Amino acid sequence: MTDAIEAQSLQKTYGDVVALDGLDLRVEAGTVFGLLGPNGAGKTTLVRILATLLQPTGGRAAVLGHDVVAEPLAVRRSIGMAGQLAAVDGELTGRENVEMVARLYRFPKVEARRRAGDVLDRFGLADVADRRAATYSGGMRRRLDLAAGLIGRPPVVLLDEPTSGLDPRSRQELWVIVEELRREGTTVLLTTQYLDEADRLAQRIGVVDHGRIAAQGTPAELKAAIGENVLRVRVDPAVVADAAAALAGLGSGDEPRVDAAGGEIRVAVADPAVSAEAVRRLDAGHVPIAAVELQQPSLDDVFLTLTGRPAEAPSTHDIPAEEAA
Q: What is the tens place of the pLDDT at every residue in 81-107?
């Protein structure tokens, strides 16, 4: 497999603030690569450098072999992009939005209209194509934005948290589109905070922390790296502190991870038999148990192990607001 996207020792600073700190990345052609990390980890900064919207402070990045600094026009001709906010003109119809982008690609008027019709139909927007985009739902606007980004049939697509803020149905619709793009041979770099999204869509995942790739591999490889089972205990949130105290020292490594609001305690364990010991301890402490499950590690466990915080927690980076994703 050849690399469609490559970054070597990539750096980006804003004064004393380091957004990217020697990031290395390789994305194989025809795959979906999930870039997983909290706000402020540097994901959007990386995407903007790859899209030639920002210049790196140091290091090198290339798309399909084209250097993002030395050959920006060739890079732009190779990519499509959709971000966290749908970049559509609400005063134009859906069709007019997509045709406008097609004309920017310098397609003749007839070809622009044909391509617009094709992508609007593909994205389930044909029936509303002649309505003003301002009347679209959030999910429809996001699909329209992606349709416009694909009008030129680019071989590489950069998706920066495309499902952020969407309802579950709209998220599922966009997931189907991403899966279709991969089957057609398109390379997709997908940044996300959603662990289930990365687990479902990506063939490989990179965990970004403090502007660097903390770990990368297939979802299965990242989970296996923990090398342990996870004991998940659910109790009433009112007694979660008592439950956590009862389970202290039960695991093979760190102290139990506690979700106080959700009433959940997760403990990494080497021996599955300790689940019985957990029940005995909680019973001895008169802690009512809602559920006890022994699970394989999830991406959430991987992320917590690598970064010490859940994916939805903000980074400690003080990156400028416009770059804070």
A: 887 666 788 899 999 999 998 998 889
Contact (Cβ atoms closer than 8 angstroms) between residue 125 and residue 116: no
* Architecture field, domain 228-296: 2-Layer Sandwich (3.30)
- Regarding the domain delimited by 3-88+136-223, which CATH topology (the fold level of the hierarchy) does it fall under? Rossmann fold (3.40.50)
Eight-class DSSP state of 28: E
299 vs 301: CA distance, rounded Å: 5
Q: Hey, CA dihedral for 304, 308, 310, 311, is it positive or negative?
A: negative
User: What letter represents residue 245's amino acid?
Assistant: A
List, for residues 37-83, the tens digit of each pLDDT value.
877 889 999 999 999 999 999 999 999 999 999 999 999 999 998 87
291's tokens? 């559920």
Number of H helices, E strands in the chain: 11, 14
Match 């659910």 to its residue by tokens: 234
User: In the chain, what are the domain boundaries?
Assistant: 3-88+136-223, 228-296
In 131-285, the DSSP E strands lie at: 156-160, 187-192, 204-209, 212-217, 229-234, 257-259, 264-269
For the whole model, what pTM was predicted?
Answer: 0.76
Q: Which runs of E-coded beta strand occur in the chain?
A: 3-14, 17-28, 32-36, 58-63, 66-67, 79-82, 156-160, 187-192, 204-209, 212-217, 229-234, 257-259, 264-269, 291-295
Distance between CA atoms of 257 and 28, rounded to whole angstroms? 35
Tokens of 4: 């469609």
